[in-house]
Amino acid sequence: MSKSPHNAKISKSQVTQWEVIKNCEYADNCLSKIVTLYVIKMAQLSDLYTSNEPEINTILARISVASENVFLNKAATIEVMENIFPYKFNSRKKNNISRLEDLYNYLCSIVGNNLPKEMLESLVREYKDAVNLFKAIT
């Protein structure tokens, strides 16, 4: 039996796992945007956990951080894709960290509160890393 990875949460009936993909975009040899893509996969739980489980659902969350988000305190762009239709995630919060907390709570509502707190920590950590990178290059 293989162990479940650290980025997975196992409930009675399903396994929820996520991975992070980061991409840096450049314009005129300068960093212009950092895009972080979260791929959240849910699968039925069988007697033995394997990464080959058939997927029930996949949700994508894309967070784009540009220099204006850091220096002009503008809201980071957050998009969610369920099924085949992407849509912009809206939050009334002005602080980007609070907006990421709203995103985490929204994603939990989609997957039935089956996301570990480590994912929220990952959302905040990746955002802070992007902010620090922009601040370091100016």
Structure in a nutshell:
The protein is α+β, with helices and mostly antiparallel strands. Helix content is 30%, strand content 39%. A hairpin with a 3-residue loop joins strand 1 (8-10) and strand 2.
Describe how the helices and strands are arranged.
Elements: E1 8-10, E2 14-27, E3 30-44, E4 55-66, H1 67-71, E5 77-82, E6 85-88, H2 96-111, H3 117-136
Antiparallel strand pairs: 1-2, 2-3, 3-4, 4-5, 5-6
Helix pairs in contact: 2-3
3D architecture notes:
The N and C termini lie far apart (49 Å). 30% of the residues lie in helices and 39% in strands. It has 3 helices and 6 strands, in the order E-E-E-E-H-E-E-H-H. The chain has a 6-stranded antiparallel beta sheet with strand order 1-2-3-4-5-6. The protein is elongated. The protein has helices at residues 67-71, 96-111, 117-136; strands at residues 8-10, 14-27, 30-44, 55-66, 77-82, 85-88.
